[in-house]
Amino acid sequence: MGEAPAFLFDDLQKSNGNGVDLFCRGRETTTIVVLGTKPSLSSDLWALPLGEDRVLVIKNGASTDDNLWFLEVDTPYVRQQKKVLGSDNVVAWSKGVMGYAGKPIVISGPSGVGKGTLIAMLMKEFPSMFGFSVSHTTRASREKEVNGVHYHFTERSVMEKDIKDGKFLEFAQVHGNLYGTSVESVEVVADSGKRCILDIDVQGAKSVRASSLDAIFIFICPPSYEDLEKRLRSRGTETEEQLQKRLRNAKGELEQGKSPGLFDHVLVNDDLEACYQSLKNLLGLDKSADKTNQSVPKIGFPMVNLVSKVGNKIYLNSTMLNLGNASKNSFVLDVSSLKGGAPGRTRGLDLYSVFSLANGFGMLS
Ligand SMILES: Nc1ncnc2c1ncn2[C@@H]1O[C@H](COP(=O)(O)OP(=O)(O)OP(=O)(O)O)[C@@H](O)[C@H]1O
Ligand SMILES: Nc1nc2c(ncn2[C@@H]2O[C@H](COP(=O)(O)O)[C@@H](O)[C@H]2O)c(=O)[nH]1
């Protein structure tokens, strides 16, 4: 049974520390540029080609957040990097993550419109459902802002280098400073099983729209330009000069908010409570919404001793796992709905237990 044979991943890989690795199979050695976060690899691995574009690597005995990895050889990201680097010998690692936390939510709109206020309300009411993508910025921190919580406050030279190294999903020059969303900031939230919220300007929203991140885009409008000015003044966080710059930029942002195809929803933040209720409605969070985290439960398969693949289902036999019920030691890993991938994580994996029958498998959970 099975389409592609699994093989034990004994192929040696040695790093020279520059992201360039030597892969050896038999006597042949090829120099390959290896991108992404590399897993620590021992020889106790299973590797299974999934079509032409990637290899699934199962680390035997590793923890649930470290046991599935993908070595991408011909995905859109790798193809793009091959062009950038001018080499055909490029691969990229991506960590496999069970389940899918729901589409990230991009919230955009002019400075002072109330984006932060609405996001804070959502996170307070649904703490285990939503997580905030902490942006990087070169602007100075305000009183009460905490590094790593509100922003990662960063030197421009450091941020520029990280942008060059492909660590940012999007970045933009906003009101005279550099702001950006790192790939890691979004992935950290999704890894925790929460839905990621991004508070970014309109230029950033355009970049995310053009990226591989499948998100919902919401634009927040003020009831009037005068109200926007009042709110910015009452917040009292900007000098008069900075405030004027933000108000000038708001005119362009309000125009761009109407760009066809950019935003999925537009909300007017007049009465705060009413706007918050509209936001919850469009996210499907009515009064009866379950406020708990609904992420996929984690099942482990520490030691796999048999792997076979039929279509998009991978059958894993794990006899050393003692659950007190030998029939529970078979699992199916469904790879039919893979999402994302390098430079972030590969998501959408589904794992469930099965029991063996004389001529096949039956489902347990
Ligand atoms: N509907 C509303 N009515 C009156 N005041 C509001 C309303 N919504 C938010 N505010 C107030 O407006 C000010 C600006 O709000 P907030 O900081 O959330 O804006 P923002 O869009 O996140 O701004 P920035 O983009 O600069 O971070 C705050 O003082 C907030 O309390
Ligand atoms: N393109 C991006 N814009 C961002 C990001 N983080 C915040 N922002 C936007 O900047 C302005 C100003 O924010 P402030 O905290 O200085 O008031 C605001 O419109 C934010 O939405 C980002 O990562 N990328």
Taken from the alpha-carbon principal axes, the silhouette is globular
How many independent structural domains? Answer: 2
Q: Could you tell me the number of beta strands?
A: 23
CATH architecture of the largest domain: 3-Layer(aba) Sandwich
- Report the mean per-residue pLDDT as an integer: 84
Briefly note the CATH topology name of the largest domain: Rossmann fold
Helical percent range?
A: 10-25%
> What radius of gyration results from the CA coordinates?
24 Å
Largest sheet: 14 strands, mixed
Q: With helices defined by DSSP (H or I, 4 residues minimum), what is the helix count?
A: 8
Describe the structure.
This protein folds into two domains: 124 residues, no CATH class; 179 residues, P-loop containing nucleotide triphosphate hydrolases (Rossmann fold, 3-Layer(aba) Sandwich). Strands 1, 2, 3, 4, 5, 6, 7, 8, 18, 19, 20, 21, 22 and 23 form a 14-stranded mixed β-sheet that branches. The longest helix has 17 residues. The protein is α/β, with parallel strands linked by helices. Helix content is 24%, strand content 33%. The structure holds adenosine-5'-triphosphate and ligand LQESDW3C. The site of ligand LQESDW3C has 16 residues, from strand 13, strand 14 and helix 5. It catalyses: GMP + ATP = GDP + ADP. It comes from Chenopodium quinoa. Its EC number is 2.7.4.8. It is an enzyme of class 2 (transferase).
